[in-house]
């Protein structure tokens, strides 16, 4: 059966690298754990590293985190839906918010549960995802800070995730400026300026991160060792904390071109082939398919191999002349990108394992 593997030692080393970087720059940070999809096996691994704050976009995952360690601070990292208000207050210590009516409901629920719920007000800085418009931030804050059992713990922003807008010094200085304006006008402290995600990390070493940005939420760089800003690997980190292994269930020498009248395939595509490139090669069918992960998000670790087709439950890998001597029953190793890990972790049909090193 196909399985995804987490390397404990490489995860530990990536975590230590980031933790030291942030401590040296007086930055607090939380681990974005949504890639684990609530897996207790993997959540325990990250908790064992001494994580103090975990951020997730699924309330069911935060519930699991609290069941494993009620002392870990939990952050719900998208504006809450109304139907989840009670659970947000119960399982999330803080949440990202952009709508006054939602915060009002959080306030009412926090009163009922006799809790103080922290919020981070997200500001729109060009990505056009969640965020209060800049010209409305001061008025928005003035309405919110009067609400009972609500504490404005910070201002934040999101960049890159949807359209790829990169953070820069100017945008982050704007975020800091709004915090300063609020503090001056209302004589209230804004503890967190949460302007950092994986893509913002390279600004630290370049000396471009405003000193007031003091909070990061990090997932991809921790798990993939990537410089997200430049779309390159970070040479001081591991890129293979996660690996996928899929078993060969058929291996035959077959032609490279299909034979017959061509219609649409499973995904609705009509494929075209160059008739002049007809040849034959060894082809392996592996026990994983589009139900588990899209083939664009995985890559054979053996660069002599190539994924040439996928259906719902199987993928076909071209082995060429099979110089490595693969056989039926052997495992093929794959490297993963962030979406590949996320899809595989969200799939109940793929086993999750941990190796020590």
TrEMBL record:
Keyword Electron transport listed: no
Cofactor: pyridoxal 5'-phosphate
UniProt cross-references to SUPFAM superfamilies, sorted A to Z: PLP-binding barrel (SSF51419)
Keywords in alphabetical order: Isomerase, Pyridoxal phosphate
Coiled-coil features, chain-numbered ranges: none
Recorded GO MF terms: alanine racemase activity; pyridoxal phosphate binding
Limits of the Alanine racemase N-terminal domain: 7-225
Origin superkingdom: Bacteria
Xref: CDD domains: PLPDE_III_AR_like_1 (cd06815)
Name listed for the protein in its UniProt record: Alanine/ornithine racemase family PLP-dependent enzyme
Protein's organism: Chryseobacterium lacus
């Amino acid at each position: 059966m196909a399985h995804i593997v987490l390397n404990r030692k490489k995860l530990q080393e990536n975590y230590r690298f980031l933790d030291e970087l942030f401590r040296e720059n007086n930055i607090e940070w939380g681990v974005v754990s949504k890639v684990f999809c609530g897996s207790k096996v993997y959540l325990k691994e990250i908790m064992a590293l001494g994580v103090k704050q975990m951020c997730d976009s699924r309330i069911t995952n935060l519930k699991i985190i609290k069941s494993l360690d009620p002392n870990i601070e939990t952050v719900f990292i998208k504006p809450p839906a109304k139907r989840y208000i009670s659970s947000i207050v119960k399982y999330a210590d803080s949440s990202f918010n952009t709508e006054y009516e939602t915060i009002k409901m959080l306030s009412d629920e926090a009163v009922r549960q006799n809790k103080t719920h922290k919020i981070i007000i997200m500001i729109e800085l060009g990505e056009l995802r969640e965020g209060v418009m800049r010209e409305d931030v001061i008025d928005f804050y003035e309405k919110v800070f009067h609400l009972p059992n609500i504490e404005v713990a910070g201002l934040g922003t999101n960049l890159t995730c949807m359209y790829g807008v990169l953070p820069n010094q100017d945008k982050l200085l704007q975020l800091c400026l709004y915090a300063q304006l609020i503090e001056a006008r209302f004589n209230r402290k804004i503890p967190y300026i949460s302007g950092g995600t994986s893509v913002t990390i390279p600004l630290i070493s370049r000396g471009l991160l405003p000193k007031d940005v003091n909070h990061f939420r990090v997932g991809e760089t921790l798990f993939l060792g990537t410089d997200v800003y430049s779309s390159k690997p970070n040479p001081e980190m591991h890129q293979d904390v996660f690996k996928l292994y899929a078993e060969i269930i058929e291996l035959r020498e077959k032609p490279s071109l299909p034979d017959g009248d061509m219609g649409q395939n499973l995904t609705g595509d009509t494929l075209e082939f160059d008739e002049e490139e007809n040849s034959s090669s060894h082809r392996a069918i592996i026990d994983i398919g589009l139900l588990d992960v899209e083939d664009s998000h995985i890559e054979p670790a053996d660069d002599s191999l190539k994924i040439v087709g996928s259906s719902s439950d199987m993928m076909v890998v071209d082995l060429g002349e099979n110089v490595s001597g693969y056989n039926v029953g052997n495992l093929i190793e794959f490297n993963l990108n962030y979406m590949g890990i996320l899809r595989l972790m969200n799939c109940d049909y793929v086993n999750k394992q941990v190796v020590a090193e």
